[in-house]
Hints:
Elements: H1 14-31, E1 40-44, H2 50-59, E2 63-66, H3 69-83, E3 91-94, H4 103-109, E4 112-116, H5 119-132, E5 136-142, H6 158-165, E6 171-178, H7 190-205, E7 212-214, H8 221-226, E8 231-234, H9 236-239
Parallel strand pairs: 1-2, 1-8, 2-3, 3-4, 4-5, 5-6, 6-7
Helix pairs in contact: 2-3, 4-5
Amino acid sequence: MFRRDSSSLSDGTMRERLERIVAHVEAAAHRSGRAASDITLIGISKTIAAGRVGEAITAGLADLGENRVQEAAVKIPELERILGPAASRVTWHLVGHLQSNKTRRAVELFSVIHSIDTFALAERISRYATELGRPMRVLIQVDLAGEPTKHGILPDGLADLASRVGVLPGMTLVGLMALPPLFENPEDSRPYFRRLRAIRDQLIAEKIDLPELSMGMSNDFEVAIEEGATMVRVARALFGERH
């Protein structure tokens, strides 16, 4: 059973926090019989000032995620001014809901979009990715808990959506993403992670290749890795509490 005091990860300097998180990723990967290189650690920088995000990049973080296109549109150019060429090494992930009127800008800013939940949205991304010559990697967000405040497609409609999205030009469907309910005990998230992996494995059996599972946050990313996560999204453990 997973045990960890999640608050301890956010102590110390940015480099120390990142090194501790990476150590926990490595340990969880080892427990699940995988290499740590199979796991992408994404620092979620929502509401975090560009200067602090720059510290994480300087410390070695290669993947960053934002929830809102409009915040990323300000922060990414600012980081380019602060860091110069070093900023270009970052892969940017959009992990929040994408509004239709922000699609073109999202394609300009991000390399990976985790939150597709309708074919209409996928078509818009495909159109702009093709037009702008920016191939996109995308994931479908799956609603596992039926929470009214969260987006995502219900599992019953997933196979049809995945088969249609998978053939669109300008983009590659690479996996599934889920946001389970937030639990104090990380073990309570395990059934949701296990279910998403089972859904993904069934789609693979149906010849829909989905290598990526984006699941797990600061409180429960080790459980998610044990259940098959290939992308984990960490905010508080890296940047501390938001104010």
